[in-house]
Design goal:
The complex is a heterodimer of chains A (112) and B (111). Chain A is mainly β. Chain A has no helices and eleven strands. Helix content of chain A is 0%, strand content 58%. With 111 residues, chain B is mainly beta. Helices cover 0% and strands 59% of the residues of chain B. Chain B has strands spanning 5-7, 10-14, 19-24, 29-37, 43-50, 55-58, 61-66, 71-76, 85-93, 99-101, 105-110. Chain B starts with a strand and ends with a strand. Classes of the chains: A mainly beta (112), B mainly beta (111).
Chain lengths: 112, 111
């Protein structure tokens, strides 16, 4: 069966520090991968999606970036965090475009 | 925009009652999905309904889709306290690749 892992679960970082969040998927190959951000009590904002290794589409201009170094690994990064980067970050995968998405447990990021 | 909008934003009911949540969208879609999110957790997929379908069931869940009105509803029958969560609709538009999520309905079921 397929599983998706995200870590860390919680992260507190100072403003200006770098960020690296990792997401890995097991049990499937060539998945579509997604990074979302969710503000408290709000909906999901799509940040990045990837249809294959090295292929990244950015949805929102910001100081975040994403990379997909391996088929089932998706990384969200920042060189310098802003206060506004605080939020709940969710990774998800799907087998095809617009198909069911399977979400990881999320990372709560607090930038102070 | 394509984004679905859920209504109501929040709903509080007694255990055993039915809960109905609605989703409206603006553009043509290939499919519409409903997801559930417990507080502080990832989303869990509930049902996917395609544009040529009108109704789908899964256990206590019933989803309807009216493409002429660009709307969908999620009915949870005989609700339980464990159904307390946020529910999101997500649309896959005909003109794009992505699935767009709405802002969600917060359901609170009182025991």
């Amino acid at each position: 069966s397929q599983t998706i892992h995200q870590w860390p679960a919680t992260l507190v970082q100072p403003v200006g520090s770098p960020l690296s969040l990792e997401c890995t998927v097991e049990g499937t190959s060539n998945p579509n991968l997604y990074w979302y951000r969710q503000a408290a009590g709000r909906g999901l904002q799509l940040l990045f999606y990837s249809v294959g290794i090295g292929q990244i589409s950015s949805e929102v201009p910001q100081n975040l970036s994403a990379s997909r170094p391996q088929d089932r690994q998706f990384i969200l990064s920042s060189k310098k965090l802003l206060l506004s980067d605080s939020g709940f970050y969710l990774c998800a995968w799907s087998q095809g475009a617009q198909e069911t998405q399977y979400f990881g447990p999320g990372t709560r990021l607090l930038v102070l | 925009s394509q984004q679905g909008e859920e209504d109501p934003q929040a709903l509080s009911i007694q255990e055993g009652e039915n809960a109905t949540m609605n989703c409206s969208y603006k553009t043509s879609i290939n499919n519409l999905q409903w997801y559930r999110q417990n507080s502080g957790r990832g989303l869990v997929h509930l049902i996917l309904i395609r544009s040529n379908e009108r109704e789908k069931h899964s256990g206590r869940l019933r989803v309807t889709l009216d493409t002429s009105k660009k709307s969908s509803s999620l009915l949870i029958t005989a609700s339980r306290a464990a159904d307390t969560a946020s529910y999101f609709c997500a649309t896959g538009g005909t003109g794009g690749f992505k699935t767009i999520f709405g802002a969600g309905t917060r359901l609170f079921v009182k025991a």
